[in-house]
Amino acid sequence: MTTTPSAQVIPSPRDPYARRKTTRGNYELYSWVFMRASGVLLIVLIFGHLFVNLMVGEGVHRIDFAFVGGKWTSPFWQVWDLLMLWLAMFHGTNGVRTIINDYASRDLTRGILKTLLYLAFVITVALGTLVIFTFEPCPANADPALLASICFE
């Protein structure tokens, strides 16, 4: 079969990636495995979080400043919530990174979007970690009705 100048040639699906040499090794494979493992662990962490916060005791009606303050006095719940925050952020950032790689066709656009994504990741993880570990359940001059029972022991 001969081709004429007016005939369209369908490019190979891998052509956009031909210009980029694979120097990162198995990064995408490890990223894929991480998404599966972190997803399973996140399911356990999130359902444990929901069960304790919504099903045990009075349920959603007891969630207030005092509840969170009392919960975060325990290193167990600090680590639990920290793991949930970090894993959710790594998992989500990795997923959005993959979407950016798939749909942003220009290198400049891809770079800007990834920079904004990583900046949002760093800010959220840093602030969330600070809140979890520097949270003061018994602030001075607070309304006693809002404080956790541990503040009066």
TrEMBL record:
It is found in: Membrane. GO terms for molecular function: metal ion binding. The keyword ATP-binding does not apply. Pfam families: Sdh_cyt (PF01127). GO terms for cellular component: membrane. CDD domains: SQR_TypeA_SdhD_like. Keywords: Heme, Iron, Membrane, Metal-binding, Transmembrane, Transmembrane helix. InterPro entries: SQR/QFR_C/D, SuccDH_FuR_B_TM-su. This is Succinate dehydrogenase. It comes from Xylanimonas oleitrophica.
